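User: Sequence recovery, please. Input:
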């Protein structure tokens, strides 16, 4: 994936900075459609979107791979408003089906601790005692955010509300209806098998 931004992006509140990228359309509500691309959450407001573009985005299934052009607004920690001027689906995307497949709650095999992960769209929540302890934005590619290429599908987890430079990376080794094997490439947890909870 690529993200094209002008150098003045961070200080400009107007929708004036061009972007051309690939990512995943997550869905729409009555007010806005959301696209995740290159580790950022981009929000297209209905009033800033041409009707034909809005109708196209609103008709997409959740987590649909897309390429798009537009004008980007002021960048927050991992979010920004966007005016989408062109969008199309990318049916040959390598990660779309896997990202859809791993949705839900997963608990580490053999652990009795009150911990599980919840994957909803491209958000990864770590839940302890029923409370969300940490939230991350998932970026799927063939390599980790730090440049390591573990092989297969790499899931970089970008902290939401934290330092994007502290992203962690898991290699998704395989996932079935009941199990998911991940290997930690930035920490010390090694290989972890998760059991689907729902």
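Assistant: Recovered sequence (198 residues):
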């Amino acid at each position: 994936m690529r993200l094209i931004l002008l150098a003045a992006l961070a200080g400009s509140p107007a929708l004036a900075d061009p972007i051309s990228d690939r990512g995943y359309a997550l869905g729409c509500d009555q007010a806005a459609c959301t696209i995740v691309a290159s580790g950022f959450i981009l929000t297209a407001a209905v009033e800033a979107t041409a009707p034909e573009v809005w109708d196209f985005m609103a008709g997409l299934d959740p987590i649909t791979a897309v390429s798009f052009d537009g004008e980007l607004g002021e960048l927050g920690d991992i979010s920004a408003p966007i005016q989408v001027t062109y969008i199309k689906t990318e049916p040959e995307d390598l990660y779309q089906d896997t990202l859809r497949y791993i949705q839900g709650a997963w608990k580490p095999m053999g652990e009795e601790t009150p911990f599980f992960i919840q994957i909803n769209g491209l958000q990864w929540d770590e839940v302890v005692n029923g409370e969300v302890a940490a939230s991350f934005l998932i970026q799927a590619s063939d390599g980790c955010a730090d440049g390591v290429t573990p092989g297969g599908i790499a899931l970089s987890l970008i902290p939401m509300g934290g330092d994007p430079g502290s992203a962690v990376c898991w290699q998704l080794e395989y996932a079935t209806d009941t199990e998911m094997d991940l290997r930690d490439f930035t920490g010390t947890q090694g290989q972890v098998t998760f059991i689907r909870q729902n």
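The radius of gyration is 17 Å.
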